[in-house]
Specification:
Keywords: Membrane, Transmembrane, Transmembrane helix. 65% of the residues lie in helices and 2% in strands. The protein has helices spanning 3-26, 28-32, 51-69, 76-99, 107-129, 137-158, and strands at residues 167-168, 173-174.
């Protein structure tokens, strides 16, 4: 199969996989109350915690994609790093825009915004992955960015800032709920 066609097919399948995995991750902590899963799954309904359902499913599916197409591409890690950043910005951007017109967009709207964010992210990723230009340092810069993002997400899971972005608007609390 043509390498470019294989990349396209893999990226399209990944759209669905990220959406499904993100949906699963949304309630993973709530279902298990496993403190380890708090690192990768939202512990409350704050906007901050929802970064996890964008970041970790995209990262996990990206790792699987790497096994399939990573060796056939030049900018895979950089493409996926830009993709996940794009996903977070696009999804929050769409939701913030909607909040200008309505106090609380519906759950369905949030899912649609997430799906659109994934599509945009995969498009950005595809364009970078298939770009013939390559600078070897972009891979290492990407690894550093991913490690920093994991560190920040993990840190603020356990030590959330006391600002609206980190507040669960339903319970008016921050971070991991106290267990009863």
């Amino acid at each position: 199969m043509n390498s470019n066609k294989k990349v396209i097919i893999t990226e399209v399948i990944a759209i669905v996989a990220v959406l499904l995995l993100g949906t699963l991750f949304h309630n993973l902590y709530e279902w298990t109350e496993n403190d380890f899963l708090a690192i990768i799954s939202p512990v409350n309904e704050s906007k901050w915690e929802h970064i996890k359902i964008m970041f970790y499913p995209y990262l996990l599916i990206g790792a699987i994609e790497y096994l399939i197409i990573g060796k056939d591409t030049r900018n895979f890690v950089f493409g996926k790093t830009l993709g996940v950043i794009t996903l977070i910005i696009a999804t929050f951007g769409i939701i913030q825009l909607a909040e200008l017109f309505t106090d609380e967009p519906s759950t369905l709207f949030h899912i649609i915004a997430y799906a659109i964010g994934i599509i945009i992210a995969q498009y950005v990723s595809y364009k970078v992955i298939t770009d013939k230009e390559y600078n070897g340092c972009t891979r290492w810069i990407s690894y550093v960015i991913i490690i920093i993002m994991i560190g920040i997400i993990t840190y603020f899971t356990y030590r959330p800032l006391k600002i609206d972005f980190f507040m669960d608007q339903e319970t008016m609390t921050y971070g991991i709920p106290e267990k009863e």
